[in-house]
């Protein structure tokens, strides 16, 4: 089955503050999304996750590479054709308090998207707004309320409804529940999973909360300092991580049981993330990796396939997958 979205060797860079050196926030990244699939993208803050999402949707301009939607290279389009194609990729921002205009009513916020999408009839817009609010679990009566009157969870549902207004094929969800209370996160996550089943929308779910990604995603990409270091089916990647960075990230996830969590020894990832203006040679994680050897600094390691749909960019990928070595070093 052909992917609905394919990103090929994408590079997005910015001018740095150190002698004008370029910062490759996204460096040679390739990902795919299929219809009705939720794909996770995880990594530490500053690794380039959000820049990748913004580059896909057109909020940042890639230096090179391709974003292909339903077989069409968006980089080859311009003007009206590009605007029409980009409607099929919508973005759900992290902070629902910043992404919505407090001076608009719910109906105005959603209808604005419908007007931009070309729906001229007022009657049709009202009906479509009611339908969208129902899809995200909000009563049609809220359409006349201002966004500032809503809770964070309700605001994020409105943001999702607005993104769905133009019937997108792909949603880019940038930490969509991190600004919400824990009690509300599960509700919004269930909403995303329901949309995948009911509408067949493909979703790139950007997050640093690995537990949420495990719950929702069918596949996961792990990103470090602008590059994908591991990818694979969610269940397998969580059970058999094959890159030291992934292994350490998973080992750092808090336990839901507070008694177990208080007694647990948490491995620390040594050092700080290197400067993106001057990343390490070879494997970018090698300066923090307890398994690093001389070969790690000579050239970027290629992805090694450890199972049919699972690969990692590490010289020890197969050994990590088999459990023969471990990057986890617990404090004394």
From TrEMBL:
InterPro entries to which the protein is assigned, alphabetical: AAA+_ATPase, ABC_transp_ATP-bind, ABC_transporter-like_ATP-bd, ABC_transporter-like_CS, Oligopep_ABC_C, P-loop_NTPase
Alphabetized CDD domains for the sequence: ABC_NikE_OppD_transporters
Example GO biological process: peptide transport
Membrane-protein topology: Peripheral membrane protein
Main location: membrane
Alphabetical keyword list: Amino-acid transport, ATP-binding, Nucleotide-binding, Transport
Record-annotated ABC transporter domain positions: 5-250
Subcellular location as annotated: Cell inner membrane
SMART domains: AAA (SM00382)
GO MF terms held by the record: ATP binding; ATP hydrolysis activity
GO cellular component, one term: plasma membrane
Keyword Transport among UniProt keywords: yes
Family stated for the protein in its record: Belongs to the ABC transporter superfamily.
Described purpose of this protein according to its UniProt entry: Probably part of a binding-protein-dependent transport system y4tOPQRS for a peptide. Probably responsible for energy coupling to the transport system.
NCBIfam families per record: oligo_HPY
Protein name per its UniProtKB record: Peptide ABC transporter ATP-binding protein
Lineage: Bacteria, Pseudomonadati, Pseudomonadota, Alphaproteobacteria, Hyphomicrobiales
């Amino acid at each position: 089955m052909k992917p609905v979205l394919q990103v090929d060797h994408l590079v997005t860079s910015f001018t740095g503050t150190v002698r004008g050196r370029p910062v490759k926030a996204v460096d040679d990244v390739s990902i795919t999304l299929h219809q009705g699939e939720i794909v996770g993208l995880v990594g530490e803050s500053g690794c380039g996750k959000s820049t990748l999402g913004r580059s896909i949707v057109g909020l940042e301009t890639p230096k090179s590479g391709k974003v292909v939607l339903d077989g069409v290279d968006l980089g080859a389009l311009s003007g009206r054709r590009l605007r029409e194609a980009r409607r099929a990729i919508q973005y759900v921002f992290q902070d629902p308090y910043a992404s919505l205009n407090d001076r608009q009513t719910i109906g105005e916020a959603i209808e604005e998207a419908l007007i931009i999408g070309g729906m001229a009839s007022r009657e049709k817009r009202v009906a479509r707004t009611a339908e969208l609010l129902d899809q995200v679990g909000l009563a049609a009566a809220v359409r006349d309320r201002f966004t500032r009157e809503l809770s964070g969870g309700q605001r994020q549902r409105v943001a999702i409804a607005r993104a769905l207004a133009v019937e997108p094929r792909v949603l880019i969800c940038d930490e969509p529940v991190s600004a919400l209370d824990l009690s509300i996160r599960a509700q919004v996550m269930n909403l995303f999973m329901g949309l995948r089943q009911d509408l067949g929308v493909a979703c790139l779910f950007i997050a640093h909360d690995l537990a949420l990604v495990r719950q929702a995603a069918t596949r996961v990409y792990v990103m470090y300092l602008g590059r994908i270091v591991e990818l694979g089916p969610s269940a397998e990647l969580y059970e058999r991580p094959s890159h030291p960075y992934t292994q350490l990230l998973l080992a750092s996830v808090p336990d839901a049981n507070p008694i177990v969590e208080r007694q647990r020894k948490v491995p620390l990832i040594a050092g700080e993330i290197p400067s993106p203006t001057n990343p390490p040679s070879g494997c970018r994680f090698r300066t923090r990796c307890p398994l690093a050897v001389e070969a790690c600094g000579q050239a970027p390691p290629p992805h090694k396939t450890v199972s049919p749909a699972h690969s990692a960019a590490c010289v020890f990928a197969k050994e990590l997958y088999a459990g023969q070595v471990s990057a986890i070093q617990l404090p004394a």
